[in-house]
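Might I ask for a little of your time on a matter of protein folding? The record follows directly beneath this note:
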Amino acid sequence: MALKVLVVDDSGFFRRRLCEILNSISDVDVVGTASNGREGVEMALKLKPDVITMDYEMPVMDGITAVKEIMRTQPTPVLMFSSLTYEGARVTFDALEAGAVDFLPKSFEAMSGDAAKIKRLLHDRIKEVSRAKYRMSGASASAPEPAKPAPPTPVREPPKPAAPTPRAAEPRAKAPPAKPEPKVEPKPEVKVAKTRRTPRQDYKVVLIGTSTGGPVALQKILTRLPGAFPAPLVLVQHMPASFTPAFAERLNRLSQLSVKQAENGEILKPGWAYIAPGGKQTLIERVGAQARVKILDGDERLHYKPCVDVTFGSCAKMFPGKVLGVILTGMGADGREGCRMLKESGSVVWSQDEATSVIYGMPMAVATAGLSDEVLALDEFAPRLIDGVG
């Protein structure tokens, strides 16, 4: 049957364009539209859609509040549309913590551009988001952010850009007509072999790769690690270039670790976590016994920037047998080949289990390929990292 989508956005133009594209997809049906968060909550209760697309800046009720209300009253997978600005990134992370599954950049130019490309992107994302396991409430997001304890090393905070000017609201569009419901293929059964606990050892670097669901998962793990964690961490999160600095700042504020966006040429230090910059490829080089970051524009043929395979593969060559690779929630299979290279060099790989993954794509690809030394629930990663990295 067709996936029922509710579109919530205060821009009449964006609603109409998004509805046109979604209604041109055979297995997607826009069942309603709303021009503000309050209407979105009411229509979610009434229409019970499979997926809700949500703007964050709206009158009457903003997108963050609407997501929290939806998770409280009618839990539904939410796909946020976000502006490519510092403020857009900050609000997007709040929305993800409140319960939204994923986000897409909100671009009027893109919505007026290559229709076939946009159609494929929206179809893939809507389909994946509809399969996501979403949180039953946004309680964790409503709590005040804890203050960060003083780290053992100085932290450089990136400057905060000025917030964008608000958009003007546009008239609401009528909902497009429904279409016939095509058949949906059943989800294939996934079988993963049981894994053993790997022994504690010294690692030159801990690599973590993730995509959909990653911002919340990384926040949950990093905020539970001590500031004196004995190895550097490199985090490869599929994310636009304008989002990674704000993400690094957020994690730095919430964690005892020092967190920053990785810079070309810097030496990795224990107690620090480095976010691979969006729109670039991050490699790890060896300088004597130390690890150093190398940032490249990368091959345009690669789908992901940053790419987990690229970072993991470079580190496998530089530090054979001395790397811990971790694959968390995310769609697709990025990280599988990088983990294969790590395993072939004698290093260790952990992956997230299906039950706690928002999207069981990347970790499933690694686990079903027989590359996972341990398959862990999200809550198990922090204690295992503390216990297993010496």
Q: What stands out?
A: The chain has two domains: 3-138, 205-388. The first helix runs from residue 12 to 23. The longest strand covers residues 28-34.
